[in-house]
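Q: Can I see a sequence and its folded structure?
A: Here is a first one.
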Amino acid sequence: MVERRAAKALVAAWFIGCAPALAASGNTTCIREPEIVSTTRPDDTTILFQMRNHVVWKNTLASRCFGLKAEPDGFTYQPTDPGTEELCSNQVTIRLNSLHSFCLLGDFVRVK
C-alpha cells in the first residue's frame, strides 16, 4: 500500500514538473496568454493565435460568434483560472468589446 502511494506521488510530481511542456492533455489544449503575439479573425467562428515561437493555434469557437470578424474594437478574455495565464479549449469566454456579446472558445488545433 505504501509503495502504491509512493508510486502515485512520483507520477504526480513528474506531471507537475512537466506541466509547462504539456500544453495538450486529453481533450483540453491550453495556450499561454503571455506568448500570444497577435490574433486574427478570418470569420465569425475562427480565431488564429500567433505565438512568439511562430506557431499558430486555430480556435474554432463552440458556436458562431456574430460580429466577431467585423468587431472594430476586438475582443477581451480572462485566463481559464486567474493567475495561470492559460487559455484552455472549451473553458474561456471572449467578450466582443463594442458589441458587448460573449462567445465560448472551442478546440485549439495547431496549424502546420
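Q: Show me another, different protein.
A: A second, unrelated one:
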Amino acid sequence: MTPIRYGMVGGGPGAFIGAVHRMAASLDREFELVAGAFSADPSKSRDMGEGLGLHGGRVYGDFREMISAEEEREDGIDVVVIVTPNHLHYPVAHACLMAGLHVICDKPMTTTTEHADTLCHMASERGLVFAVTYNYTGYPMVKEARERVAAGELGALRKVVVEYSQGWLRTLLEAEGQKQAEWRGDPDRAGVSSALGDIGTHAFNLLHYVTGLETHRVFADAGTVVEGRVLEDDATVLLELDRGVRGVMLVSQVATGERNHLRLRVYGADGALDWCQEDPNRLRLLDPDGTETMLFRGGELGAGAVDATRLPGGHPEGFIEAFANIYRGVARAIRNEGDEGEAAPDYPTVQDGCVGVHFVHRAVESSQSKTWVEMSQVSANMDTTI
C-alpha cells in the first residue's frame, strides 16, 4: 500500500517529541516523511532535513513555505504533523486545514478555547482527519480497561482517580536555559498553563477515554511551588462527572523522584481497575472482597486490546508502540478503513483536543476564582461548541 506522505513542522535539533512522532509514524510503514520545516532557524531546518535523508528541495524555512510549495507538487504531502511549542499549533493547523491537508497535532491542541473551537469547526466542515496525540490511549491495556468499563463489568461507576506526576521541574530548570523547560514556563509560548496544559490534559483525556464520562464542573487548586516560576507546576482538580460520579486529578511536575507516573483508577459498585503507564502491559482488577486479578497484554483480551497488540505476551511493548497505534488509527481514517470486519479507526480526534483545551482553561479559571466552574462541552457531531 502506498504510504501516506507527511510533512513535519517543528521537531528540530534538541526536540524530544519530534523524534518520537517520526519513529511511531514509521513503525507500520503507513506514513512516509517527505518534507519538513523543522526549525524557525532555516539553517537548522536544513541540517535536520539532511540528517533525516530528505531531498533538499523539500526542506523549508517555515511552514507557510512548505504548505505552498507542496500544494504545487503532484507528490505533495497529504498530512502535516505539528510538533512545535504550543503557541504555534493554531496558526500551523489553521493553514493546513485551509489547504485541505489532514493534521496530526501534539497536545494541547491550542492555547485558547476560541482557536480550539475554530479548528473543530474547520475540520468538520472540510471533512478532514485531525488527530491530537493523546498517545496513552494507544496502549492495549488502556483499550482493555475501556472495553470492560463499557461492558458494565465494574457496575455503576462511583469514583475515578487519575494522577500524572513528574519530578523533572523540581528546580528552576528554565532559568538554566534547558530548552524543554524554557518554553513550557513561558506564557507566550505555553499558554495559560504549564502543568495542566502539558500533562494534566493527558490525564483528563485518559479518564474520559476509559470511562466515557463527560465532566460537568471542575474545582481546581493550581499553584507554583518553585520560586521564580511563572506558570503553575502543581495542581489538584476535583471533577463532577456524569451520573454524579466523583473524580480527582493530581498533576505535578515537582514530585521529586517521579519520572512519568501516569496512573488511572476507576471504582464501580461491583469492581475496580488500576492501570499505570510505567507498567503498561498489566491491568489490575479488584473484586469487592479485595481479590485481585492481573491481566497481561498478549492474553485473552477484548478486540480493542488485541488489535493494538503487536508482540506475543511476555515481550514488553511500550511508548513507541502505543504512539504508533495512534498513527495507525489515523491512517485507517484517512484511507476510510474500518469496514468489513476491520477494526474501526480509533484515535484522539479534534473534538478530544477541543475538550482538552476547554478543560485546561476552566481549571485555571477555577483556581483563580476559587470556585466550581462549569465545563463547556463539545457536541457529539463536532459541529457546535456549547
